[in-house]
Each structure stands twice: as C-alpha cells, then as structure tokens.
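Data deposition worksheet. Section B asks for the primary sequence of the deposited chain exactly as it was used as input, without tags or linkers unless they were present during the calculation. Section C holds the resulting structure in token form. Section D is free text for depositor observations; keep each observation to a single sentence. Incomplete worksheets are returned to the depositor.
Section A, Depositor: J.P.
Section B:
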Amino acid sequence: MVEAERIFGATIVNSEGKLVPTRYVAEQHIKEDCGGIVPSVSDWLSRIRPEAWMSRGYSLPEPDHKESDT
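Section C:
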C-alpha cells in the first residue's frame, strides 16, 4: 500500500471525479487477491517452504596469487 501511494500519490481521482485515498484502493486490491486479508511480511515469510537450493552456501575459490615467470 505504501508503494502504491509513493507511485500514485496520496489520492487518485476515480471515474466519477472524486478523490479516493490510494491506500484504500491498494488495500481493496490486496484483500481481493489474498482472501479478504492484508497479510503482514511475517505472514508471507512464515509460509515459504524452504528448498534445498535456498540453504546451499557456495564459497568461491580463493584466487591464485602466484606470480608468473614471464
């Protein structure tokens, strides 16, 4: 909702020419998509199913600092 307000401003003009709070419009869209609620970041993150690739820590090989004899 904050991002919508940042992009579109605090209010928008609807098809009837009335000012409508952008946050209200964004909230309604989110509720439509998320079953009537506005989930928190915690709600989203707690439902991520970890995959093996998400926890693999790959380390890069150390660079070879040998001087060449050229």
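Section D:
Residues 1-38 form one domain.
The first strand starts at residue 11 and ends at 13.
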